[in-house]
Amino acid sequence: MSSSTKTLTIPALLILLGLSCVACSTKPDTPRKAEHPIHPLFLQRASKYDLHRTLSPESMNQKLKSLFEAARWAPSSYNSQPWRYIYGVQGTPQWDKLYDLLVPFNQEWVATAGALILVISRNTFENNKPSRTHSFDTGLATAQLFLQAAHMGLIGHGMSGFDYDKARTVFNLPKDYTVEAMIAIGEPASPKNSTEELAERDAKPVTRKPTSEIAFEGEMIT
Ligand SMILES: Cc1cc2nc3c(=O)[nH]c(=O)nc-3n(C[C@H](O)[C@H](O)[C@H](O)COP(=O)(O)O)c2cc1C
Questions:
Q1: Is the pTM of this model over 0.85?
Q2: What is the pLDDT of residues 84-124, one digit of tens each?
Q3: Domain 46-202 sits in which CATH superfamily?
Q4: Ligand 1 pocket test, candidate residues 32, 101, 103, 157, most atoms within 8 A of CB
Q5: Nearest 5°: phi and psi at 62?
Q6: Coil, helix or strand for 186?
């Protein structure tokens, strides 16, 4: 490549990068980096705050079906499938019931989201014996839901900041069901609906412990 081509190419690339960023978000995302080779979807999934609803309620309902389908195929102890999801799409009475459970901090950024999900697990097997793994199984299913959301260009953001007891009462849950978490589902921000504060929060780097601190050959070092 000649030096004149290089000088033309680099600014052109920068302009292109800038344009593509404007098309997706007000600020560039902080790229996540893996220590070892993995599927890019794992790095793409992120609990963004700047999430929105532009889809119609019908389209959102359709997309949610795919998220629950992905959850449905998770492995579970004895194939007991203890996960349950109660959901509501923005603008419906079901949304209101779920939204009212959230703590004020979460209500603030969730207000623009497209759907809310309450995650529940059945803590007994069909034979009514207690299940040791109902939360683990439900976590597995919900991870699949999150990854399917990321694959479809949606954001899934888990939440524990809500009133667990109120959730049990509002949804009349029997004692063999455990309230696990909530999830906000939305679409990524576009410049016209994004706020500076949320975009800044999303631009902050997100880190992880090194694999050497979470996986051990034979003996755990604490
Ligand atoms: C069970 C669970 C509960 C969470 N609760 C909240 C919450 O109440 N509010 C919030 O803003 N984020 C919440 N988060 C999001 C985490 O803060 C986030 O997953 C973590 O910082 C890692 O960021 P990442 O998901 O973008 O990788 C929760 C996540 C999970 C899995």
A1: yes
A2: 999 999 999 999 999 999 999 999 999 999 999 999 999 99
A3: NADH Oxidase (3.40.109.10)
A4: 157
A5: -60, -45
A6: strand
